[in-house]
UniProtKB/TrEMBL annotation:
Keywords: Membrane, Transmembrane, Transmembrane helix. Coiled coil: none annotated. This is Nitrite transporter. It is a multi-pass membrane protein. Pfam families: PTR2 (PF00854). Its main location: membrane. Belongs to the major facilitator superfamily. Proton-dependent oligopeptide transporter (POT/PTR) (TC 2.A.17) family. InterPro entries: MFS_trans_sf, POT_fam. It comes from the Eukaryota. The keyword Membrane applies. The chain crosses the membrane at residues 100-118, 138-163, 184-203, 209-234, 326-347, 367-389, 409-430, 450-469, 481-500, 520-539.
Length: 567
């Protein structure tokens, strides 16, 4: 028993060579990639329409489509990166390879912004009317964006899982740092996004696109070198084969044995510690009574006893519980989509509101606040909330609840959902005030809704990340992080559908906001979020945490722990 505990501890720490791997010392190398990626993608995305229309002379509609395609692709490619990390090459090599691909894409994009032959000639009135970009110039752009999207697909799902992996789950003190890591991760991401929409965008507009793209490109190159240089310090979990194949095998085995009588005693179900060892280093999943129709895949029949068991006919309890975990996660995952739908209005209608308001810093000031800069209040609120949560709320809540993370991630997500609904409600009230005011009101009336959205993101998004990482099967944690980005993509598409439907079937969203009823759209989304919150509360109350059987050196044996609940 003692040797087995040591084997598990050694596997989680990266080896028995006497040199402890992982820990806080690896964070600068890991966070560097995320910061550089966000500097590049957010800085460019925030200003992409300007670059495409002013530098490449694209029509506005085509530029908007290009921006949408790039965003959608960058949100879907994490599924590919997660599969490579979990099934084939591991998280380190996925991050390193994706960073290199990203660097190539950003380098070619920077070169096209610097070298005049990659862009059409500048417009000069009647002397030199605007020429559209040639086919090969557009090809360079599209290839650069595709490489950047592929690179982002390898970085986004793996950085969060690889970073959390550096803190051992077997050690209680390090497990506390795991939950702090998610706050640190999102805080660093927020700081880099804040720099992108302020410093990087300012350089692009006032210094030049060469510098505006070159600085994030250089940052990515430096971060790639530093990340690879830290290779010997990282804890690295080995890929355990395709998790999707295992899930399909469970489904096929259960379908083949669907006519067998229901399982009464879980003790008779098939277990194989040696077979499950590569995918259960942190502990084996134990049997749960939910979704019992899948348990038939672990019933040992006479045919299974007479021949070598095939994974397409017989599955272990651990593998069945992997599939159950993902199925149980689905309703919680779906609940997070509407938060993104609500937040998406900040980049569209909230900007239009800002354009129609008094954007002076003060009555005597001539400086006008750019509408796009109002998102700064969202990021400042998010960063402030994360800091207060980590330094003030968690220590107090930890004494009351006994949880490492202070409050459960399900409660954290619920608070975020409630704040998001409050934000859209306030947005509608401000719009009523703006339209009915006798004179143009200050743009700073929008600060409360931006701040509430920032606080909502600090609770809902980080809670979502914690939920995916903790409740996903151990061998699918990169895939779980990819699901987080998939929810963001789905939320954006739902926002487009809601706005399109409202625009088509109502008169709320005219070209002139002063003649429309934008507040009704906000309140429609508020109502949808209230219903969604009720749905989420029901799902959270019925949710079953995955139970894990782990080795306990202190207690001299095994113990069952409900992951996420620290029971």
């Amino acid at each position: 028993m003692e040797g087995k505990v040591e084997d598990i501890a050694g596997a989680l720490s990266g080896g028995r060579d006497g040199k402890k791997k992982g820990g806080i010392k690896t964070m600068p190398f890991i966070f560097g990639n995320e910061v550089s990626e966000k500097l590049a993608v957010v800085g460019f995305s925030a200003n992409m329409v300007s670059y495409l229309t002013e530098q490449l002379h694209m029509p506005v509609a085509k530029a908007a489509t290009t921006l949408t395609n790039f965003g959608g692709t960058a949100s879907l490619t994490p599924l590919v990166g997660a599969f490579l990390a979990d099934a084939c090459i591991g998280r380190f090599w996925t991050i390193a390879g994706a960073s290199f691909i990203y660097l190539i894409g950003m380098t070619s994009l920077t070169a096209s912004a610097v070298l005049p032959q990659f862009r059409p000639p500048q417009c000069a009135g009647d002397v030199h009317p605007c020429e559209a970009a040639s086919t090969w110039q557009l090809a360079v752009l599209y290839i650069s964006l595709l490489l950047a999207a592929l690179g982002a697909g390898g970085i986004r799902p793996c950085v969060v899982a690889f970073g959390a992996e550096q803190f051992g789950e077997a050690d209680e003190k390090e497990r506390e740092k795991t939950w702090q890591f998610f706050n640190w991760y999102y805080f660093c991401m927020g700081v880099s996004m804040l720099m992108a929409v302020t410093v990087v965008v300012y350089i692009q507009d006032n210094v030049g696109w060469g510098w505006g793209l070159g600085i994030p490109t250089a940052a990515m190159g430096i971060s790639l070198l530093s990340f690879v240089a830290g290779y010997s310090m990282y804890r690295q979990a080995k890929p355990a084969g395709s998790p999707f194949t295992r899930l399909v095998q469970v489904g096929v085995a259960a379908a083949r044995k669907r006519r067998l009588p229901p399982v009464v005693e879980s003790d008779v179900l098939y277990e194989n510690d040696e077979l499950d060892k590569p995918i259960s280093l942190a502990g084996k999943l134990v049997h749960t009574s939910s979704l019992s129709f899948l348990d038939k895949a672990a019933i040992v029949t006479e045919q299974d006893e007479l021949s070598q068991p095939s994974p397409w006919r017989l599955s272990t309890v651990h593998r069945i519980e992997e599939l159950k975990s993902l199925i149980r996660m689905a309703p919680i995952w779906a609940a997070g989509i509407l938060v993104i739908t609500a937040a998406a209005q900040q980049n569209t209608f909230s900007l239009q509101q800002a354009r129609l308001m008094d954007r002076r810093l003060s009555r005597s000031s001539s400086f006008l606040v750019p509408p796009g800069s109002m998102t700064v209040f969202t990021m400042l609120s998010m960063l402030s909330t994360i800091s207060l949560y980590d330094r003030l709320l968690v220590p107090i809540a930890r004494r009351l609840t006994g949880l490492d993370r202070g409050i459960s991630f399900l409660l954290r997500m619920g608070l975020g959902f409630a704040l998001s609904a409050a934000a859209t409600l306030v947005a509608g009230l401000v719009e009523v005030r703006r339209r009915r005011a006798a004179s143009v009101i200050s743009v700073f009336w929008l600060v409360p809704q931006y701040a509430l959205f920032g606080a909502a993101e600090a609770f809902a998004s980080i809670g979502h990340l914690e939920f995916f990482y903790d409740q996903a099967p151990e061998s699918m944690r990169s895939t779980a992080a990819a699901l987080f980005w998939l929810s963001i993509s789905a939320g954006s598409y739902v926002s487009s559908m809601v706005v399109a439907a409202v625009h088509r079937y109502s008169g709320w969203l005219g070209d002139d906001l002063n003649k429309g009823r934008l507040e009704l759209l906000y309140w429609l989304i508020t109502g949808m979020q209230v219903v969604n919150l009720g749905y989420y509360v029901l799902c959270a109350r019925c949710y079953t945490y995955k139970p894990v059987r782990v080795m306990s050196e202190k207690r001299g044996g095994e113990r069952v722990q409900a992951a996420g609940n620290n029971v």
